[in-house]
Design brief:
The protein is 32% helix and 20% strand. It starts with 9 loop residues before the first strand and ends in a 27-residue tail after the last helix. The structure holds flavin-adenine dinucleotide.
Length: 466
C-alpha cells in the first residue's frame, strides 16, 4: 500500500511555490507549480509518481536548484518533487571502495565524509557546497578535477530510480566491472530528470591522494594556453586540474590571488598535481618537470603553491569568478561549451572577435584541460539583448564547426533546448524522443526540457543568477 504523505510535506503557499519555481538560471516558469512535495523516502516518491501518473500531472524533480539551464524549473505547472530531505549517506564501504547515498546529499558533505576515511570522491562541481548528488547525477556534473579524474558518470555504479508510473527499479551494480545488458545507469546519468527520479546511488571511491600541489603559469596571451597544455602532455604530465582565466577574468582576480600579476600577463593557467601517500618523491619530480615544461612553452612566470592555505586562496579566487563577473553588469549569462583542446586558441580568438563585433562583453574562463570554457555574456540594457542572442548563436555555431559540444556540464534543460538541432541530427533527436516515450509514455516527467519546440529561451527578468 502506498504511504500517506505527512501534510507538512506538501507546500501550496504562494511563497513556496514561487521559491521552487526558479533555479540558478534565468529560466522563467510560465506558471507556478500547483504544489511542492518534499519527499523523505523512495516509497513517498513512488506514491507521488503513481498518483501523478494516474491523473496525468507533470512532475519536475528538484534537488538544490543550483542548475544553470532551468532543469528544475517547472515548465508545465503540476508538482515540484523536492528531494532535499533524502539526504543521508547510507554507507561508506571502504572494503569495496564505494558509498551508497540518497539523492539529496550535498556533494561537499560526501567529500568530507569519505575523506575522513582516507577515500576520495573526485567529481567537484564548483557549486559543491550547495549542489547535491542527485542533481549531479541527473546533469552528469563535472568540475576542475574532471580533467584528471573524469565526470560524475565515471563514478556511478548503480542507481535506484522511480519510474514515471511509480514503479521502483534498480539498475547497474556494486562492482567496478560489469557488462550485463544495456547501460541503463549511463542513460539515467545526465537525463535531467526526464526519464526517472533517482532515489539512491552507489558511487565508487578512490584512495585519497595525500599530497596536492598547485602551479600558476602566467602567460602573455590566451593563444599560449593550448601550447602550454601540449608541453605538459609531451612530458607525460597529466594534471588533475588545468583551469584557464582569460585577460578579463584575470583582471578580476588580480588583487585576490595573493601575489602580484605583471601587466604583461594576459592569461593564467591554474594547474594541480597530486600523488598517493607513497609517491611523494614522484610528485616532487613531476612538479619540477611541469614547471620547466611551462617555462619552455613561454610562460612569463610559474609560481608554486604547496601549502593548503596558499592553494585555498587561489581556488577561492577561481570559485568567486562567477559572482565577481556578476558585479560588472546588470545581466550575465554563462555558457559551458566544449571544444577539442587543440581548438582552445581558436575559440578564445572567436570570443574576442565576436565581443568586438557585437559590442557585448564576453569574458571567458574554465576547464582548459577538457576544452570546457565558460563564455560569459554581460549586458546592461534591453536594447543590447538582440546582440546577446546573436553572439550566443554565433558561439554555438562556431563550437559545432570546431567539432565541439554545446554543454560540458550544465546540460540542455530549457535554455539550450532551442539549439539542440545544431549538434544532433533529426534522426538522433527522434531516437532520443522514442527512448523518452518508452520510459515515460504519458510525458509527465519534467516536460519542456531538452527537446526543442516546447521550450523557449527565456531571458526575461534575468537579474544574473549564473
Ligand atoms: C556557482 C555555481 C557553480 C557551478 N559550477 C558547476 C560546475 O563546476 N560544474 C557543473 O557541472 N555544474 C556547475 N554548476 C551547475 C549546478 O550546480 C549543477 O548542474 C548541479 O549538478 C545541479 O545540482 P542540484 O542539486 O542543484 O540540482 P537541481 O538544479 O535541483 O536539478 C538539476 C537537474 O537535475 C534534475 N534532478 C535533480 N534531482 C534529481 C533526481 N533525484 N532524480 C532525477 N532528476 C533529478 C532536475 O530535474 C534538473 O533537471 C554550478 C552552479 C552554480 C550556481
Amino acid at each position: 500500500m502506498s504511504p500517506r504523505l505527512p501534510v507538512e510535506a506538501i507546500l501550496t503557499d504562494i511563497d513556496s511555490l514561487e521559491r521552487y519555481a526558479h533555479d540558478a538560471s534565468e529560466a522563467v516558469a510560465p506558471m507556478p507549480p500547483s504544489a511542492v512535495v518534499r519527499v523523505a523516502s523512495t516509497a513517498e516518491v513512488s506514491a507521488v509518481m503513481e498518483a501523478a501518473h494516474a491523473h496525468r500531472v507533470p512532475v519536475t524533480p528538484r534537488a538544490a536548484g543550483t542548475g544553470r539551464v532551468g532543469g528544475a524549473v517547472p515548465m508545465a505547472g503540476g508538482i515540484v518533487l523536492a528531494l532535499e530531505r533524502m539526504n543521508s549517506i547510507r554507507g561508506i564501504e571502504a572494503g569495496d571502495s564505494l558509498a551508497v547515498v540518497e539523492p539529496g546529499v550535498v556533494t561537499g558533505e560526501l567529500h568530507r565524509a569519505v575523506e575522513s576515511e582516507g577515500l576520495f570522491y573526485p567529481p567537484d562541481p564548483n557549486s559543491w557546497e550547495s549542489c547535491t548528488l542527485g542533481g549531479n547525477i541527473a546533469t552528469n556534473a563535472g568540475g576542475p578535477r574532471a580533467f584528471g579524474y573524469g565526470v560524475t558518470r565515471d563514478y556511478v555504479l548503480g542507481l535506484e530510480a522511480v519510474m514515471a508510473d511509480g514503479s521502483v527499479m534498480q539498475v547497474g551494480r556494486r562492482t567496478r566491472k560489469g557488462v550485463t545488458g544495456y547501460d541503463l545507469v549511463g542513460l539515467l546519468v545526465g537525463s535531467e530528470g526526464t526519464l526517472g527520479v533517482i532515489t539512491e546511488a552507489t558511487v565508487r571511491l578512490l584512495p585519497n591522494p595525500a599530497r596536492v600541489v598547485t602551479l600558476v603559469a602566467l602567460v602573455a596571451s590566451e593563444a599560449d594556453i593550448a601550447p602550454s597544455l601540449a608541453a605538459l602532455r609531451a612530458r607525460g604530465i597529466r594534471p588533475r586540474c588545468a583551469e584557464l582565466l582569460d585577460a578579463h577574468t584575470l583582471g578580476l582576480v588580480r588583487l585576490k590571488v595573493g601575489f602580484a600579476i605583471p601587466e604583461s600577463a594576459r592569461a593564467l593557467l591554474l594547474i594541480e598535481l597530486d600523488a598517493a601517500p607513497d609517491a611523494s618523491d614522484r610528485l616532487d619530480a613531476e612538479l619540477e618537470r611541469a614547471g620547466n615544461a611551462l617555462v619552455d612553452a613561454g610562460a612569463l612566470e610559474v609560481l608554486v603553491a604547496t601549502q593548503s592555505h596558499e592553494r585555498e586562496r587561489l581556488w577561492a579566487a577561481r570559485r568567486e569568478l562567477s559572482w565577481a563577473l556578476r558585479t560588472l553588469a546588470k545581466n550575465k549569462l554563462s555558457e559551458d561549451v566544449v571544444v577539442p583542446v587543440t581548438e582552445l586558441g581558436a575559440l578564445l580568438e572567436f570570443c574576442t572577435a565576436t565581443a568586438e563585433r557585437t559590442k557585448i562583453r564576453m569574458p571567458a574562463y574554465g576547464h582548459a584541460g577538457d576544452g570546457n570554457v565558460h563564455v560569459n555574456f554581460l549586458w546592461d540594457t534591453e536594447d543590447e539583448r538582440p546582440r546577446v542572442e546573436e553572439a550566443i548563436e554565433a558561439l554555438f555555431e562556431r563550437v559545432i564547426a570546431l567539432r565541439g559540444t554545446l554543454s560540458g556540464e550544465h546540460g540542455i534543460g530549457v535554455l539550450k533546448a532551442p539549439y539542440l538541432g545544431l549538434e544532433q541530427s533529426d534522426a538522433v533527436v527522434a531516437l532520443e524522443k522514442r527512448i523518452k516515450d518508452a520510459w515515460d509514455p504519458a510525458g509527465i516527467l519534467n516536460p519542456g526540457k531538452i527537446f526543442p519546440g516546447e521550450a523557449t529561451r527565456a531571458l526575461h527578468n534575468f537579474h544574473g543568477a549564473c
